[in-house]
Amino acid sequence: MNHCNKHIIPTIAGCITLLFFFYAPAVRGQEKSLREVRIQHRKERKNLNTTERLNTFGPGMKVVAIDSQLLQQYAQQNLGQLLAQQMPVFIKSYGINSLATLNFRGSSAAQSLVLWNGVPLNNAALGMADVSLLSVQNFDQVHIAYGGSSALLGSGNVGAAILLDNRNREADTGKKNTFAVHTEVASYERYKLALQERYHMGKFSATLRLQGHSAKNNFNYTDQNGVPQKMPNAQLHSYEGMLNLAYRLSNRTQVHLDLWHQSFERDIPPALFEQFSVKKQNDRSTRLLAEINHTTGKNSRVYNKTALLQDRMQYRDSAIGLSATNSTFQFYEEAGWQHHTTQHELLLFVPVNISWTKPVNDSVARFQNKFALAAGYTYKVFEDRLKIAANSRLEQINDQTVFLPGLNASYRLFSFLQFRANVQRSYRAPTLNEWYYQPGGNPLLKPEQGWSQDAGYELKYAGSSLFLQHDLSLFNRQIQDWILWFGGSIWTPHNIARVHSRGIETFNSLLWKTANWKISAGVNTSFVLATTVQSYIPGDGSIGKQIPYSPRYNGQANIGLGYGDFHISYNHTYTGYRFITTDESQYLLPYETGNVYLRYDLPLKKMNCALSFYGNNIWDRPYQVVNMRPMPGRNWALGLSASF
Amino acid sequence: MDRKVLQNIKWLLCTLVLLASCKKDKPEPGKPVLPGDKTGRVLVVCEGSLGNGNAELSVYYPSSDSVFNDVFKTANGSELGDVFQSITRLGDRYLLCVNNSDKIVVLNRNSWMQERSINIPKPRYLTKVSEQKAYVGSLFSNKLYVLNTTDYTVQKTIDMPYSNVEGILVQGSTAYVCCWDTACNKLYRIDTQSDRITDSVLLSGYAPQSILKDREGTLWVMAGNAYKKKNTSLNRIDASGGKLIRSFAFPAGVEAIKPCLNNNADSLYFLEVNYSGGSISNGVYRMPVGSPELPSTAFITCKANQYFWGLGIDPYSGHIFVGDPKGFVQKGSVSMYSVQGELKKEFNTNLGVGAFYFD
């Protein structure tokens, strides 16, 4: 992006913000966008998306939906920020502008899947997804499936899966067309402009989302000598666009086409031990997905989806004359058939996932081919109070064949109390980098495998003005041949024998509302013990010790107050000690952040318009999520959204 | 019904609090102390884990069998930096090359306090040239830095034909310099008076990295970069004539590093490193300087899933010190062997044992 283009986003964002400030009071509001989102959220989906698959064939799995209000609140932030502030998960963020990966229940970054409309987004070479690159605004629904669900979602899903869906891929004929714009001005010269157009005409519907982001990110921090500094080399320029097309061929058949392109030009700031940094990283991803859903009879449906994904990462460090470009490709194909009766649900599907890359310093392209035959079956009795599901997947990964069974069930004892239990086999083949990266790839690496169990209950009370929810999960997982990267100058992945993860998670929320008032409160907690129990390393000091960067304690508390068109909420997060080393000899201190969110829906007539304010880390606490990578202190963002 | 539900929830929340309190989160590290005695100590260079800024200095006293870890942090209250590559003593000061922090830390030998920091990009090894001068090699650069050791300023730089200046040996007014560049197959001679390259010696392999002088006065140059497809070679050079007199070629893919000589300078020791922790070409190797061929078996063999990263020979006792970095993800360990290869002692150090300095 040249110098001129770098100023386009801030200029446009600033102009539109000013424009709205001057002209917004002239028009009157009619409908609250919050309510609109909620109505859509309740709408039943007709195509067989991944969330529906889990709900139908994983009644004993813990699947958490991020509600529409939270999606709206975090629309202009990335998925990593949403999860870190609202979910009991540890987001390993290397700091502003840098990689952010997932750690669910003590899992490694490569052990959790991120699925976009059912297609894996994890980088085929790295095996992980950078959640700092996923803007919440791009998705209509976000769900988290805790625990392993390899049979339904594929191998590699050990810790959890994040399901990102675009609801409007469905041909929602008859809906009105909308155009929405959001501008944001924030600390550290951050500017953002996002546009969204939803268009419906007859059997055709389209949603186009565009956004650009520019930031200097020159936040204040204190260096190792206690001297205040401004963060250099932290600029960000990004743009992305997503197009979701849907066409209803007939009452029984819908076709969808989705195109998503992202480009991020990021400066990588210096770590505290570095004198300076001139590192730059450019990430570009292009994803194309075509899908057809067809209802074959009263109780049966078939579908087919085909996707091609490319992730290109260029890393440059002119200080050492390094410039490396790595491109990975994924071809994903899945065909399935679902049949249901009053008591039985059956799903058969055949997923194919071929990924390839040509590692730097390697002479040939390396492939990982996954072919699978999978089935899900659910039996419902006692008026659907008891649901028992059995799932299985026979998957061939290159020349290895693995059988991944799973069994889960739920039982609604009372209308307000439901129990669930889930047992799954977990399996993760080494990624392309783990096998072939030069230097350091380890072709002798064995796959990670084991079993996971989780069980829990949900207490839910919904009165006329009071809503209470309490959910508790206990989990236990044993993974043999856990993969961990070792090394000094040359990093090499090794199998470290056996890791035992177990813990407890709770979700607790309360909502009290009247005609004008709404008060909410919530606390989410997690306690995770993820320890090495057996090791292949001679004299290993990690036995019985916590896996690095897996906090034992993690929790979030929320409190919200709404009156009419005004909403304010406060969020507080706590993350416990994180060990840097496998023997717990080095660690990072716990950190807490306090964050506020204010929103005011302007009473306009011809459009929905809202002012929003975010304050992050409002207590200005210095902290590091990852060693030597300082995080920003108090910072804010002012946003203006309008739709008509 | 409502009341009952609320009571249940309250009970469950209390249980949760109790359950969550069952594991103490706060670690309890021991209180480190600083080593005092200056004689007969072994300084252990713990390079840390690349990108984590957790390099440190450990000190071991063989006479009392006592180990001091976290020496730098204890004395200075801050982290040393990222990738502590080497240590050199100049008088009553230690100069610590902290590679990925682009600095050389000058440490007081008595108090362990940092006296100053010299900014040099990616410093690797510092070699004393005279009482007022030292040469410092730099990774990713063809610059050889000439350091004034009186005021610790960079006097000038010498442009080398290739980048990555590593091993330097000073003999009289000549410095022999290795450029660990995969395109380089020469050993360069520099006149230390004029700081100019005067000559070069052709080697049998590429990427020269380390240089030593044996008891016969001949030079040994270890060269190679296995991951960049440059096979390792060992070159023996007649220092007076400046000619290659013998060369040894390692099998393709073998990474041989960190050669050192025993007290009599008649036996060469080096590490072969198998990063996957396999049994082939993995351990400490030994060969007499007069040997016609490379050793075929390890003198000290690595166990499965282990490789060594530090090697040094105590000039006083002749004991062989071997560093196991244990993956650079936990405390490293040092094993001390007799000349016969008998394990005498083991102790834990800071992270990533890479080298030893016998003071």
Reading side by side through the largest sheet of chain B, how are the strands ordered?
3-2-1-28
Low-confidence stretches of chain A: 1-5, 15-46
Coarse shape of chain B: globular
SSE string of chain B, helices as H and strands as E:
HEEEHEEEEEEEEEEEEEEEEEEEEEEEEE
Q: What is the general shape of chain A?
A: globular
Biggest sheet descriptor of chain B? 4 strands, antiparallel
| CA gyration radius of chain B, whole angstroms | 24 Å
Number of helices of chain B: 2
Quote the average pLDDT of chain B: 92
Strand content of chain B: over 45%
Helix share bin of chain A: under 10%
Rg of chain A, alpha carbons = 24 Å
In terms of quaternary structure, the protein is: heterodimer
Q: Can you give the helix content of chain B as a percent range?
A: under 10%
Assess the beta-strand content of chain A as a share of residues. over 45%
Number of strands of chain A: 35
Distance between the termini of chain A: 32 Å
Classify the secondary structure makeup of chain A into a structural class. mainly beta
Q: Could you report the average pLDDT of chain A, rounded to the nearest whole number?
A: 90
Task: Give a quick precis of the structure.
The complex is a heterodimer of chains A (644) and B (359). Chain A has 644 residues and is mostly beta strands. Chain A has a 22-stranded antiparallel beta barrel. A five-stranded mixed sheet of chain A has the order 1-6-7-4-5, covered by helices on one side.
Could you list some keywords that capture this structure?
heterodimer; A: 644 residues; mainly beta; 22-stranded antiparallel barrel; 5-stranded mixed sheet; 9% helix; 54% strand; globular; disordered N terminus; B: 359 residues; 4-stranded antiparallel sheet
